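WARN retry 2 of 3 for item q-0093 after timeout on previous attempt; input resubmitted unchanged.
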Amino acid sequence: MQHRLVAPETQLSRFLPAVGLATLGWLVLLVIAATGNRAVIRHDRLLQGGPPLWLATIWFVGGWQVMLAAMMVPASVHAFARVQPGTASTRFAAAYFAVWTLFGLSIFFFDAAVHAMVNNWPWLATHPWFIAGTTLVVAGTYQLSNIKAHALEACRRVEHIPTSAGVDAGGSRHGLDCVRASGGLMLLAFALGSGSLFTMAAIAVLMAWEVTPWGSSVVKPVGYALVALGVFVVAGPISLPTWWPL
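OK item q-0093 returned
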């Protein structure tokens, strides 16, 4: 009885598009940081004294795609590698990014409402650490939830992802699973991390590690740490890091 073996280089080639996309995302982020154009990925600069909301939204969507490529694609390399390269992988990626873009728009518009509230609530304007601390507590609490645990399990599985036909639905489903699994940490990256490439890289590494078979071991410790830090920040008053985009 003969067994057909797939050459190692053929298996590795499946990972190259996702790895290349993630690498491109980080290169663009480095260029953005080096050229002083961080307003593209910093919602505070888009919403405070920036362009009209419709134009800020367009800029945000563009910057969000870069953040997704750099931060979320590494956590889904295993899923991207399952899809056949070419048109199928492009459609899978488009569906995956579309789901994450809807999530990004929801937090962007919610943040626009928060900024409007700050402008009309003097107490909140003079207590910016309250918003930062609350964000940390929310992200930490979500880390500890059963929703997060079940979503991570779903995000790790790839057997349901089609390799060619039906990749649009497969990309959407995987995107939804990963939004539920990593949405809290991406909220943290959006709210507090987009001003620091080091923080964004740390969150990206954490999200990629969480979807590994050993990732569950860090989920709850990170959640407790975020909640504790959030309570400390809320207690204030403290001077927030200049790179926290509030």
